[in-house]
Structures are given as C-alpha cells and as structure tokens.
Amino acid sequence: MRLTFLGTGTSNGVPMIGCDCPVCQSPDPRDRRNRTSAVVHDEAADRIYLIDTATELRLQAIAHGLNRVDAILMTHAHADHTGGFDDLRRFNELQQRHLPVYANPETAKVLRERYAYAFEDVFPFYGGKPDLHLHEVTGPFTPFGADTLEIVPIPVIHGRLPITGYRFGDLAYVTDAKAIPDASLDLLRGLDTLVLNALRATPHPTHLSIPEAVAIIQEVRPRRAYLVHLSHELSHAAASALLPAGIEIAYDGLTVTTAAKV
Ligand SMILES: [Zn+2]
Ligand SMILES: [Zn+2]
Ligand SMILES: [Zn+2]
Fold first, then answer.
1. Rounded to 5 degrees, what angle do the CA atoms 36, 191, 216 make?
2. Per-10-residue mean pLDDT for the chain, 262 residues long?
C-alpha cells in the first residue's frame, strides 16, 4: 500500500484567512496544510482509493499527479471533507464511467441531500457534474469483487457524530476522531502504518489532542504512525518535538509505503 497525504490541516486550513500568527506566516512548506484527505494506492491490484473530497481536491490532484480514482471512501460529511465533491466530475469524464462512493449510513444521507445532482443520471460522463453510485457500508466490503482487497470500516466518534475510518490490509486511516470504541481499537491492531488525527496539544471536544492520539497509538502499537488534521497552533517542528519515536507529523505531499502484506 502506498499512501499520499493530499492534505493534513484542520477545517480552516493553514494558513488561516486573516491570521498573522507564526505558524500561518511560517516559511516551512510543511506548515502549509490543505484540508485533510489522502489517496491510497493498492499497487499489487493497481486500485486507487481517494479518502474524502477535501475543499482543495482539484489543487491537490494537480499537485500530486492524481489523474485516476477507482473508489471514493468518505469518512463523514463535514464541509472540510466534502468541499471538493463536485471535482469528482473530472474523473468521470477522464474515466468515462460511474465512480463508486462508500460511506456510513449517516454520511450517505447527508451526501444524498447535499449533492443530489451527483446521483442522478442525466448525461453521464460529460464532465458537467459528478456521476456517482453511493454505497452504504456497515461492515467490511470488497469494492472490486470477492477475491480483491477487503476494506474494513473503523467506526469512531467525532464529538457526538459516528464517523468512519478505513483499514486497507496493513494500513489504516482514521481522521476526525475524538474517541475510538474498544471494538474499533481491536480493528487497528497488527498494523504497519496508522494515520490518526491530532488537532493540537490541548484537549478539544470533537478532536483528539496530540497526547490523546499518542496514547491510542501506544495502545494499538502499529510499526509507525502519522498524525493529520492539525490546526495552526503548532508548527510541524513544534508538534514533532512532542512525539515519541515511531510517530510523526504528516505533511501535504508526504508519501509512505507499507509492506503490502494483504
Ligand atoms: Zn475535519
Ligand atoms: Zn494562524
Ligand atoms: Zn469533522
């Protein structure tokens, strides 16, 4: 599995509009964080999974050479994770087919309401709108047939909202969690690489803090972990200094590869 971080920032992005704090003004390119999203390439099967359609999807796709998407996995329907949804239409046009979107039932309901036009077939694949098939997931699923990679949804709690992380073999991606139920912690054991959210150093009602994220990582013990969805309160350097060995702050454009033992 190869994962590229398309964005690693919280809902405002970093820099924030109208903020002159040291992080928003930082010259370090790792302190420029688009809204959180990632692409996972199952290289053995040559399948490309896009996780969320962040606000900057078009810019992220161009910056990182993303010119094909085989499936879209949505973690939840907050605007920072869905703002680029309309940009999916370009992939329909390039690929001349419907694209499958996977989401839990709560997220699917919101997507159907907010983007109703993307699920109606008027003139498919002309690039004027997305042409999508929406699938509700409540357990492990195989988007490309029975003998292909099984993707395991990881239910987590984001404030009061039940949202979804995803596991792809030895790689798992969880964003916007505040709490991870015990049954979901069990789904995160035996990983090569875990991606987890951490907003800032201090507690927040709907997002893990860095110490809370570190505690979860030390509980499930992946070989290594990367933190995403950071606010402007910590620079990459300052946040990195808070972490033990084996845990790193991700940054936009970083690519990591696992052993792909699936
Ligand atoms: Zn978010
Ligand atoms: Zn700032
Ligand atoms: Zn959210």
1. 65
2. 98 98 98 98 96 98 98 98 98 97 98 97 89 98 93 98 97 98 98 98 98 98 98 98 98 92 48
Smallest Cα–Cα separation from 163: which of 81, 71, 221? Answer: 81
111 vs 105: CA distance, rounded Å = 10
Query: What is the whole-number distance in angstroms between the Cα of residue 10 and the centre of ligand 3?
Result: 9
Ligand nearest to the CA of 23: 2
Beta bridge partners of 230: 9
Structure tokens of 215? 């505690």
Q: What is the pLDDT of residue 126?
A: 87
Residue 62 CB-density burial (10 A; 0-12 exposed, 13-18 middle, 19+ buried) = exposed
- 3-state DSSP of 44-72: CCCEEEEECCCCCHHHHHHHCCCCCCCEE
Tell me which residues have their CB within 5 A of the ion that is ligand 1: 80, 176
Cβ-proximal residues to 241 (8 Å cutoff; 6+ apart), any chain: none
Ligand lying nearest the CA atom of residue 228: 1
* pLDDT (0 to 100) of residue 260: 57
Q: Is 116 exposed, middle or buried (0-12, 13-18, 19+ CB in 10 A)?
A: exposed
- How far apart are the CA of 38 and the centre of ligand 1, in A? 13
Enter the pTM of the model. Answer: 0.97
Both tokens of 114, joined, read 């907010």
Neighbours of ion ligand 3 (CB under 5 A): 78, 176
